Amino acid sequence: MKQKKVCVIGLGYVGLPMAVALSNVKVKGKFYYQTFGHDIDNYKISKLIRGIKNKKLPFDSLDNDLKKKFSFSCSNNKIKIIKDLNELNKMDIIVLSVNFDFIGNKNSFKNIIKLTDKIVKNVKKGTLILIETTLPPGTYEKILMPLIKKTLLKRRIALNKIFFGYSYERVMPGEKYYNSIINNFRCYSGYNKASKIKVLKFLQTFINFKKFPLIELNSITECETAKILENSYRATNIALVDEWVKYASLIQVDLLKIIKSIKIRPTHSNMMLPGLGVGGYCLPKDALFAIKSSQIIHKKKINFPFIRLTSKINNKMPLTSFELIQRKIKKLSGKKILIMGVSYKENVDDVRNSPTNILIKKLKEKGSKITIHDPMVLKNKIPKFSLFNIVLFCVKHKAYKNIPSKFFSKTTSYFDLNNILNEKKINFLRKKNLKFFILGRYHE
User: Fold this and answer.
1) Torsion angle of alpha carbons 322, 326, 331, 336, nearest 10°?
2) Quick check: 349 and 376 in contact, CB under 8 A?
3) What does the DSSP 8-state code read for residue 433?
4) Which end of the chain is more exposed for a tag (fewer CB within 10 A), N or C?
5) Residue 64's CB: how many other CB atoms inside 10 A?
6) What is the domain partition of the chain in residue ranges?
7) Helices (DSSP H) in 213-340: which residue ranges?
8) Regarding beta strands 336-340 and 390-393, do their DSSP bridges make them parallel or antiparallel, or are they unpaired?
9) pLDDT attached to residue 213
10) Is 144 helix (H, G, I), strand (E, B) or coil?
11) By the 8 A CB rule, do 324 and 359 touch?
């Protein structure tokens, strides 16, 4: 069996775990891929090179599977870094896992166009180029393919000699990081039938497709659309609960208990609970890609009222928590406040678009003195709660699950803004008559 050479371009929170997964693929007891990686971020690469040398991930993770797989790959020289894209002419498969951000006009496509052109200028015949970056629907077929055809024409290579596919990632950082790559449903498509077959065979090498069937869509544009609709739905689900938090406070009901009673129904099991807000790299921006796609790529102005309202609500969602704090603590100026968790979600060290940062900004504007604790980002010890006037539980980190009861001081006010404290801890706080408030629950 001849090994395949695969290169992952973009070695961030998605690309690097993907490279790790590929470097561990075995077929008939033998490693199937020679895995390479590339990134234009010199700081990220230098950090990764140190990580490879020390057999330690360049970012923090609670996923022992990912840590072990990465360490194994490093020990056995399974992941190699390439600095020059000219080396792509040796690859059989190229996976693009780079960021795409909309700045506001067509120039936003500049980086992905430039990168695609470099790749196509260097690939050999028979190469599969698979993009898993989230893109505005129509990007691949309307913007990238005309460029690809022109470049291949200059190289005198027929379009059907290279295979082009798209399969957006569904990686979920956290305790089951690695598992989310190999045990997860995937949609995919290709530029033509031959490309679709190539993509399918590639995905089947590292995904447990018998338990998690791979879904073929008609076109790459359909596949791009699936990711945007998927994240639009998730973002809207989060936004919906915000107005009910405010209403529950008005009519004095326990919204958390109400939602949990509704979630028992299988058809409603993914209903969101009250929280501080949405963050991370994807959800705050992905839904807006539909608007930009219709305007810039397809030249049609579609309003998308739900998407616009969802984005507006989610951007302001941390203010709902801020308003709760203001109602219960009349004077915030000079108050010492401990922030428990600053990453955008539990058990990750990623702070991009973290809703906690919006809350911190508002508290500082009121003159509050802020101290931040985060076991993933800062890796600091939890300070004594008695040193603070207010403690805000913002992120549901595993480290906060079993905070000893002795940490809770009677002189401090506590706010659970993300359904972090369990019922046992809540009952303890009630029994001790401590001042605590939970977002979504009515308080006297």
Assistant:
1) -40
2) yes
3) T
4) C
5) 11
6) 4-217, 231-438
7) 220-251, 255-262, 283-286, 289-292, 305-316, 318-328
8) parallel
9) 97
10) helix
11) no
**Residue 105: what pLDDT?**
54
Strands 369-373 and 79-81: unpaired
Give the Cβ contact number of residue 331 at 10 Å: 11
Q: What are phi and psi of 48, to 5 degrees?
A: -70, -40
Please tell me the pTM assigned to this model. Answer: 0.93
Give me 105's structure tokens: 């006009």
- State the Cα–Cα distance between residues 106 and 428, nearest whole angstrom: 56
pLDDT at 301: 85
Gap between the Cα atoms of 2 and 25, Å rounded? 14
Class of domain 231-438: alpha beta
As given in the structure block, the two tokens for residue 276 are 């501080």
Which amino acid makes up residue 375? P
CB neighbour burial string for 337-371, b if at least 16 within 10 angstroms, e if fewer: bbbbbbbbbbbbbbbebbbbbbbbebbeebebebe
The CA-based diameter of the chain, rounded to the nearest angstrom, is 78
> How far are the Cα atoms of 44, 185, 205, 411 from residue 140, in angstroms, in the given order?
27, 22, 24, 58
**What radius of gyration do the chain's Cα atoms show?**
24
The CATH number of the domain covering residues in 4-217: 3.40.50.720
Q: Of 313, 292, 321, nearest to 236 (Cα)?
A: 313
Which amino acid, residue 105? N
Which residue has tokens 């990912």?
A: 66
In a 3-state reduction of DSSP, which class is residue 398?
helix
Q: In one letter, which amino acid is 278?
A: V
Half-sphere exposure of 192 (CA within 13 A, CB side): 8
Residue 442 has a pLDDT of 73
Whether the domain at 4-217 and the domain at 231-438 fall into the same CATH topology = yes
- The residue among 419, 370, 412 whose CA lies nearest residue 394 is 419
Helical axes 64-75 vs 42-54, angle rounded to 10°: 80
